[in-house]
């Protein structure tokens, strides 16, 4: 049975007042949200490492210069040594979780091997680590005005420049984050 208040396939958009350095000015794609908690991938925090460097560390060869220069993202503060690949749904790999008919997440090496060969998913975002919340934790943060949330857009995940994603995700909701104060209030 589906969790009726699920934020799966939604963006969590950090409010301007969110000071946690792991999440300030981030957009997190929620891969799973149940009564037991939530898991997501931050999609706008590139690391210093490129995909080419990561593939070389894993001894996965590729000659694709554009692929080698692609950023790897800090997916969140949990298990930062573990890889997560958000990608267009379709092909499945050893550990693929279908999130929607359009987006999946895979944690197994075979997706990186397919990407390196050029026969992987048509769109992908590679991240190290994830964002996780225990039961009720995300709901508590939302009631404290830490996050905006709204439906996700694969255009923002896969096609938009990293630096534009935070403002663009809020603009999907008609919100201009530049006009919001960093202070939250309750009526």
Automatic annotation (TrEMBL):
Pfam families, sorted: DUF179
One cellular-component annotation, GO: cytosol
Highest rank taxon of the organism: Bacteria
Gene3D superfamilies per record: VC0467-like (3.40.1740.10)
Family note: Belongs to the UPF0301 (AlgH) family.
Name used for this protein in its record: UPF0301 protein EDC29_101454
Species annotation: Marichromatium gracile
